[in-house]
Predict the structure of RuvB-like helicase.
Amino acid sequence: MSTPLPSPIHPSPSPSPLVQIEEVQSTTKTARIAVHTHVKGLGLESNGTALPIAAGLVGQEKAREACGVVVDLIKSKKMAGRALLLAGAPGTGKTALALGISQELGGKVPFCPMVGSEVYSSEVKKTEVLMENFRRAIGLRIKESKEVYEGEVVELTPEETENPLGGYGRTVSHVLVGLKTTKGTKTLRLDPSIYDGLQKESVTVGDVIYIEANSGAVKRVGRSDAFSTEFDLEAEEYVPLPKGDVHKKKEIVQDVTLHDLDASNAKPQGGQDVMSMMAAMGKPKKTEITEKLRTEINRVVNRYIDQGVAELVPGVLFIDEVHMLDIECFTFLNRALESSLSPIVVFATNRGVCNIRGTDVLAPHGVPVDLLDRMLIVRTMPYSIEEMVQIMSIRAAVESIEVEESGLKALGEIGARTSLRYSVQMLTPANIIAGTTGRNSVTEADVSEIDELFFDCKASARLLAKSDGYLK
């Protein structure tokens, strides 16, 4: 009797390695810390008085209260065509005050910053650069009432017919779209061109869309929140089911600047042939917008304002280092400030009495007297040691650096001896020195070591004055 053969032994399958999922920390916060990241406003109370430390600003109470009055004038639209000059020594917070004004005005009011040296270009005239920035700082809020069909897509059926040109192909004759709202459902029979818009927006059943009745433009708002539990992980924006009827009137508000209107009308609408595309590519990158076009756009804008369709929002144009402008620019500014479409202009300078660029004439702040007459002047004062310590504390918190009290005091003393900008720049190197010794907080010893390693501008100038310089 034969013995049964033993069953073959199959090796057990080795366990598959687990898929490793690592969380990648976002670097957005650390990468976007700038010099004035900590400025969140002007730090004023409801009655307009400045708090000693608020909204990232320290000290400069008089200047902040004056800027608060300017903000109120801008909001009440009583300061269009006027100018403000922030004058003070370097590192006294002029740019911070201008940014504080923009923060107080909010995101809907245009704020256009520029530096005086930006006007010097080999491609465009100086006055054109100034006018372009003027137009960027003037907003236009267009209110439009549109008839729209809005709802959740419950049906999407393209109806096909025989191709009228012959052949075996079929074309879409119309498309049936069912839209649902809280009040009911309506089925629409739409043109095939709208079907192209639905495909471009990648609309499927369950999406919330709206279709403009006049133009047939399709806009996908998001996925209906009824499908929010459909998948565990999905990168979709879920929106509630629209209220009211499917066919309704909707108020659409659009914010643009006058420069946007200039640029969109200045571009020539070429054909689709190869020669037109080559001609468009061969054009220079920067072209001047003619005065005739701007006058025409101003006429259209004024008509919209008279009809109540649009509202003018005068913003803020901030020109830093205004002494870098020359006499031609100042003459142009005199005319531009008198225009009916003019923003509020905020100038900043750290010069005393100096030459007006392009002339041998001495003038306060390097600005002609006739332009100074149009300005409200706000002076910024140097910071005390206590205020510098407070500023260093705010900067350290923004940069996520722990600094001991003794270290902050040492940084304040260095700032008083040199400049506030130099002491702010010492924060990160001092933190690196503290990290190499295994400590999490910056001490007075770390600040002293960094102060010995680096020179500030005054110390470097003293060394050069004692020596013959570097070049022989």
About this structure: The chain has 16 helices and 19 strands. The domain at 53-137+315-380 is CATH 3.40.50.300 (Rossmann fold). Residues 25-31 have pLDDT under 50 and may be disordered. The longest strand covers residues 138-162.
